[in-house]
Specification:
Layout: H1 4-17, E1 27-31, H2 56-63, H3 71-74, H4 84-96, E2 101-105, H5 116-124, E3 129-134, H6 141-150, E4 154-158, H7 164-170, H8 176-196, E5 202-209, H9 217-226, E6 231-236, H10 243-246, H11 252-256, H12 258-272, H13 278-286, H14 302-305, E7 306-309, E8 315-316, H15 333-337, H16 340-350, H17 352-355, H18 370-380, H19 388-393
Parallel strand pairs: 1-2, 1-7, 2-3, 3-4, 4-5, 5-6
Antiparallel strand pairs: 7-8
Helix pairs in contact: 6-8, 7-8, 9-12
Length: 402
């Protein structure tokens, strides 16, 4: 068994070597299901305004300007749950390779999967950290009690709104009661943590900023404070080239008022001591999440840092990549991780600034992991990482909670 520090050292040695890896991924992201119980308006997969469920094959086709998959080709992604036995084997193998940080996510809602709590217990028994992205609506008192007792690390709950009215607007088909129940359970989370004198699970309240909620961010920030959130995260919206999702992008008029609004919110959150990512958000929002300039200067390190496994068992370097590097149902994860396809990806990602060409299937110009890559670059290159050219692109100290 490796500790987390050793995993980081092994990843760094692999990056410096440039052609191999000396351990497993630092972070293992396991997507459990394509099912969801809510229709978030911004969701790539289940939004009622999206022209297509934007599963990897769809995003890849749009990225490469190719014809979209047929309805029959898309069917294999419909209502899929990851095989529980395969998930158990994958977690055990990642642990044996030194992975000590896990993210349980999905193309939908991870708490719908029957193996969600078992997976959490399996990970936490080893002392490893575990977080999830969730809509939060399936968190009841029983689940919350168990999450507190096992020391689950972080709940990233995307509410998109701070009031029942705003919630219904951003979650078509939901009711005000859905929001009130969600709020009550998140309040219970704070109460249980206080009663048990526990800091975990940290509650990270997340808001994807879109046109329909851009004038209601103050209400969202107020909710975060009422819920005693441990962190508040704002994220720019990526329409993944879907014409329907593109209608959600804030208008120039809406965007022009955002900086003043968030500057006020930042002042308030700072006064209350609530961590947030507003500085980084404003930087990336102004560029519509355009990270092209950054990757002319720094590489992408995801090939050493992370691995993403979707419910069908397909392995990619991160959630922004749509080109499969292998499938855990055809070969074990270690063979994929050390295989030719992954090595080719690592070589292309490391040479991204030199060639300017992202690896196939990677949307590096709209990268949600840019801060993580920047932090790795600064750790490996302390002087260059804080040079004027880097600061002009990304001010030091920006963080987005990765």
């Amino acid at each position: 068994m490796y500790d987390h520090a050793l995993s980081k050292i092994r990843a760094a040695l692999g990056i410096l070597h440039g052609k191999t890896t000396f351990g497993g991924p630092i972070m293992g992201s396991i997507s459990l299901t394509t099912r969801c119980n809510v229709r978030c308006i911004h969701c790539y997969y289940h939004s009622p305004v999206a022209h297509s469920p934007n599963f990897p094959m769809v995003r890849s086709a749009r990225l490469e300007a190719q014809s979209l998959p047929t309805a029959d080709e898309m069917k294999r992604y419909e209502r899929v749950d990851a095989d529980p036995a395969a998930v158990r084997r994958l977690i055990d193998q990642l642990l044996s390779m030194g992975t000590r940080r896990f993210q349980l996510s999905s193309f939908g809602e991870p708490f719908l999967h029957a193996a969600m709590m078992d997976s959490i217990r399996r990970i936490k028994r080893t002392g490893s950290s575990c977080l999830t992205n969730s809509n939060g609506t399936l968190l009841d008192k029983e689940v919350i009690d168990e999450l507190v007792e096992c020391g689950f690390d972080e709940l990233r709950v995307t509410t998109m709104a701070g009031t029942a009215e705003g919630y219904v607007q951003t979650h078509p088909g939901s009711t005000p009661q859905t929001f009130e129940k969600l709020k009550a359970n998140l309040l219970y989370l704070g109460e249980r943590k206080a009663a048990r004198k526990r800091k975990a699970p940290l509650l990270n309240l997340v808001c994807i900023v879109i046109g329909p909620n851009i004038r209601k961010l103050r209400e969202f920030a107020d909710l975060a404070q009422e819920l005693r959130a441990d962190r508040v995260t704002f994220r720019p919206f990526n329409d993944v080239r879907d014409p329907g999702l593109a209608t959600l992008l804030p208008s120039p008029e809406e965007a022009s008022t955002l900086r003043a609004e968030l500057t006020e919110i930042k002042r308030d959150l700072d006064a209350k001591g609530v961590p947030h990512n507003i500085a980084n958000f404003l930087m990336t929002f102004a560029r519509r999440l355009d990270t092209k300039a950054l990757y002319r200067v720094i590489p992408c390190y995801q090939g050493w840092v992370s691995a993403y496994i979707n419910p069908l068992g397909e392995v990619t370097a991160c959630c922004g990549c749509s080109e499969s590097l292998g499938n855990i149902h055809d070969q074990d994860f270690a063979s994929i991780w050390k295989g030719h396809a992954y090595d080719k990806y690592r070589h292309q990602a490391l040479n991204l600034p030199r060639h300017g060409q992202p690896p196939k299937g990677c949307d590096c110009h709209h990268c949600v992991h840019h801060t993580l890559n920047l932090n790795v670059y600064r750790a490996l290159h302390p002087l260059r990482g804080r040079s004027g050219s880097i600061k002009a692109i990304a001010p030091a100290g920006c963080a987005d909670g990765e």
